[in-house]
């Protein structure tokens, strides 16, 4: 154990030094036991034996352990299971870096945090190298096989500033699915460019190539061409246009004095119990408002079939599928983590954070179901069987 003058050190520093010394002692004990076990199991006559020690440093959660005595054998074959031959950091340090990065902490801020916690300086380049290992996981995750059936696919995008030659807003496409059992899952994300129907078509084709074959419903907003792109990949699926987006758009164009009354009348349409009742409520709304808001009422009339699709589905799941709220809550969390960085240095930075947030959500969602899907399970299975009959 090291000796130190307690008069010149505060309690936190004393504890830190004590933990470093204790950790060094325990690691060296484990290393001696490891090489002892290896040499005891050597075949008779091999003639291998200990050959002293070599010093090395190791960064840990308690700071840097200096002059760690690592034993070696005469043949140079011994390697410890505790760390790789040239590894300078224990796994826990790397995990801390990744967790900080996952929550949107920039590489320079991560370096400052580690210096305060561990007493060691990590350059932005070192932090980037640690997080770069995540990219291998990102690529594997983006190419993983997907389930065959999804009740609904929710499509939405957010926009982040990414530095290339200049700083520009680029789209992060997100696809969230709901299984017949009611589990949510982020199926994939795709970063780059501006949001477009062609971009979505490529993404949906990728999902199909990875195993998604049977989909009942696509839920998204009114991006031009998106409905056609979706139907080109999943022709047997229905389309649900987000009702809340449509209502907001209409309210933005209505006079302030009319907004409360018009909102109430629109609500009667999309809270109806059946499609027939909704059509009747819309007919009354049309007669009441068509002279004052002819363009908006005509738009509702044109879009009504895709705004009321959800009413053709079991009542127990309608609250989940008439709007994009499910995916918007997810996107809000991803945006929050991305927004802490003023602008991202490259696409890979956006991919790392989006991936780490996505797997966190998927792990949590795998343990719980949306309740309505359990209640409507038999009806949902019947819809799949009718729409996708076995050959």
Automatic annotation (TrEMBL):
GO terms for biological process: DNA transposition. Pfam families: Transposase_mut. Keywords: DNA recombination, DNA-binding, Transposable element, Transposition. It comes from the Bacteria. InterPro entries: Transposase_mutator (IPR001207). GO terms for molecular function: DNA binding; transposase activity. Required for the transposition of the insertion element. PANTHER family: MUTATOR FAMILY TRANSPOSASE, TRANSPOSASE FOR INSERTION SEQUENCE ELEMENT IS1081. This is Mutator family transposase. It comes from Sutcliffiella cohnii.
